[in-house]
Design goal:
Helix content is 28%, strand content 26%. It has 4 helices and 7 strands. α2 links the parallel β4 and β5. The N and C termini lie far apart (29 Å).
Length: 145
């Protein structure tokens, strides 16, 4: 599991964000909630995504996929708009074939919302930003199955 560096939008300090942790990331300087954007693979996905204390938006993508490259900045923006409320986990299907099989990924990009370790919503393809925003908001507000 790797950590990433994220700059706080309030105070400008750079913070190290772990891929997995209890709670959600906050700025070490001003305590502002920070966006949580990480990568995961076959070995660390259960800890990074399924055991997360906040809902997880999983992006199954590949570097060679044009629609994946179009949707990625939109997903980053959605995560940045919802600090402390959602964790964005990116899974490269080329390096994580086990997860692709497990979640029956037939097309990319495929997006999942995982709440309390269970898939709560699924979306294949690259819809417009407004459609992704409303899909995510609906999935996050829906009662657990």
């Amino acid at each position: 599991m790797e950590s990433s560096l994220t700059k706080c939008t309030r105070c400008g300090k750079t913070n190290r964000i772990p891929a997995a942790a209890a709670g959600h990331p906050r700025c070490g300087n001003c305590c502002q909630d920070l966006p949580w954007i990480v990568s995961a693979g076959d070995t660390d996905f259960p800890v990074v995504a399924e055991q997360s204390s906040v809902p997880v938006l999983v992006d199954f993508w590949a570097a060679w996929c044009g629609p994946c490259r179009m949707v990625s900045p939109v997903l980053d923006k959605l995560a940045q708009e919802r600090p402390g409320k959602v964790k964005l986990v990116k899974v490269d299907v080329d390096t994580s074939p086990g997860l692709s099989r497990r979640f029956d990924i037939q097309a990319i990009p495929t997006l999942l919302v995982i709440k309390h370790g269970t898939v709560a919503a699924r979306q294949a393809g690259a819809p417009p930003a407004a459609a992704l925003r409303s899909w995510l908001d609906e999935a996050l507000s829906a009662a657990p199955r």
